[in-house]
Amino acid sequence: MPAPRPAPIEHYENFPVASWLCPPRLRPPIAAIYHFARTADDIADEGGAPPAERLTDLAAYRADLQAIARGATPSARWAGVFRPLAAQIQAFALPLQPLHDLLSAFEQDVRKTAAGAAYTDWAELLDYCRRSANPVGRLLLHLYGVAGDEALAESDAICTALQLINFWQDLSVDIPRGRYYLPLTECAAHGIVITKPARQFAALQPDEKTTKLIASCACQASASMQKGLQLVHRIPGRGGWELRAVVQGAMRVLNKTDALGAAALRQRPKLTRADAPRVLWRMLRM
After folding, report:
1. Those residues with Cβ within 8 angstroms of residue 116's Cβ, 6 or more apart along the chain or in another chain
2. Sign of dihedral through CA atoms 153, 251, 133, 86?
3. What domains are defined for the chain?
4. Rounded to two decimals, what is the model's pTM?
5. Comparing 188 with 242, which gets the higher pLDDT?
6. Please, is 248 exposed, middle or buried when counting C-beta atoms within 10 Å of its C-beta (0-12, 13-18, 19+)?
7. pLDDT above 60: residue 6
């Protein structure tokens, strides 16, 4: 498989592959993991298929993962995903549990959306992050040859923060799509009682209560990111700079989300070229 240029973080935001800083020898496995995750995300999210069909397709997708794990041939349906992934699993001895964890998170997305259900509390939401985001960091640590409990904990903290930042950045997108990531207990702590998520989240007003709610959620993401910052010094060479770029780009998005306050319910903050000098300066300061 040729070494493709990594795709920018647009479609699958939790995947920290964004630039030429990625070491060339790691581009094939990272691209294979990215396409595995992106395709599964599309199955869970895109198109007009009913939830039962999405779950059936994700089960078939998991069966293909299990097939290549035992050296069997995957189905023809997603051969473009699983044949390159099988080669990279063999070449780099990639662990399979993180890939299964990602699929578990995508399946949960389908079920939650179908039920119009919200996350009850931080424990439930962070468990989702453990499966939706943290596996990516663990796979990348494996590729970089970085091991140890401290590194794993730092990676989990950063990936959880990235997922949370993505949630708060995408409130204006997720709520209309029936995805409710603001924890109900956190809402209640700010005087916002949600008993019927589909109706009440859509009706949230840009007032002081909602502004304080979003600020509190932003603090949770920032605190998680702070716990993992030492990881940039553990990853060698260009990989460490790649991580610095991801961290500081995400923190800049979080700053913008926090500044918007309740307006984030209607407006999605984005990085622009004007943010590049600030992000670069913060990378250097790390």
Report:
1. 178, 197, 198
2. negative
3. 21-115 (no CATH), 118-286 (1.10.600.10)
4. 0.91
5. 188
6. buried
7. no
